[in-house]
Write a structure and sequence with these properties.
Number of strands: 8
Radius of gyration: 18 Å
Helix content: 25-40%
Order of helices and strands: EHEHEHEHEHEHHEHHHEHH
Strand order of the largest sheet: 6-5-4-3-2-1-8-7
Distance between the termini: 36 Å
Largest sheet: 8 strands, parallel
Number of helices: 12
């Protein structure tokens, strides 16, 4: 079974993907044959429907749409703001993004459907009517940590995929008990670095939603152990919810799961490259990929 990765930074890391995607196409032997790119997700700066992270990508949306179209990759707009109100639905920028990414045309005439990651039911209902060409993903910002609630979310016909809170990743007995149809909708968040015992995750996401709406609010103060260090991939690998490549191949894929999300929209492109190397690149070719990326004079990875 193939593993499909959903990669961060559709707008935020445009330059990195512009360099990486040709390598993935032209040197496919450098990469694991059991994995593919399922989508690239993100939101540009000043996007009020955005959530999860405050978007900082400033690449023109037309360039982004053209890149994913060229490589036949699904683009996902991250519209996971949890605090959308009726007056926000007419936002010009967000609606223009929907019109731009709403088509299905892909490389060589192959239809590639784009999607939207969504939290708000109000926004979901609006998008279903106005832009039915999208598929929809239930956002991890809902912080679904109860397995029964997660199972109910999987049964919602509106969603093609559901991203549970990372703390459900290792509930293997319950996960194996899902139906085949439900399993195909589960999208695991693999590399979360957040404290496993965090009780403030919803408030953190809500703070981001308020900032994206332009509200004047204080920054959320993370009180988890090690918060001052920021994101460290080495720490994420020690997280009880971490899913590595060996577990994907030997536990999740044999159990019928195929969708895996990599976080990192708020991180630097150098760290995103490390994710691409770890999750997708054969060890003997990781130096080749690094050299090709680092020697690209158009990139500023640090």
């Amino acid at each position: 079974m193939k593993a499909y990765y959903h990669l961060p930074g559709l707008f935020e890391f445009y330059d990195l993907y512009k360099a990486f995607l040709p390598l993935f196409r032209e040197h496919r032997e450098w990469f694991y044959d059991w994995c593919e790119i399922g989508s690239i997700y993100g939101a540009p700066s000043d996007c009020i429907w955005g959530g999860g992270r405050v978007g900082f990508g400033d690449e023109p949306a037309e360039n982004v749409a053209e890149l994913v179209k060229e490589y036949g990759i699904s683009a996902r707009l991250t519209f996971s703001n949890s605090l959308i109100r009726e007056e926000h639905l007419g936002d010009k920028k967000c609606n223009e993004l929907c019109r731009l990414f709403g088509g299905r045309a892909g490389q060589n005439g192959i239809a590639v459907q784009n999607g939207v990651i969504v939290h708000s039911d109000l926004l979901l209902n609006y998008l279903k009517v106005r832009y039915p060409e999208f598929y929809f993903v239930s956002s991890t910002t809902k912080v679904i940590t109860d397995f029964a609630q997660f199972s109910t979310e999987l049964n919602c016909d509106e969603f093609r995929y559901v991203v549970p809170d990372f703390r459900l990743n290792k509930e293997l007995e319950n996960l194996r008990g899902l139906s085949d149809e439900q399993k195909q909708k589960v999208e695991f968040l693999c590399n979360e670095c957040c404290w496993f015992g965090c009780q403030d995750r919803k408030n953190c996401y809500e703070n981001v939603s308020r900032k994206n709406l332009g509200e004047d609010c204080k920054d959320h103060i993370c009180r988890s152990p090690g918060a001052k260090k920021g994101y460290r991939f080495s720490d994420a690998m020690k997280n009880p919810g971490f899913i590595g490549i060996n577990e994907i191949q030997n536990i999740y894929a044999p159990a019928g799961f195929s969708q895996f999300k990599i976080e990192g929209r708020s991180l630097g492109s150098a760290l995103i490259l490390e994710f691409l190397l770890y999750y997708m690149t054969k060890p003997e070719y990781q130096l080749n990929v690094r050299e090709e990326i680092y020697l690209d004079s158009t990139l500023d990875l640090f």
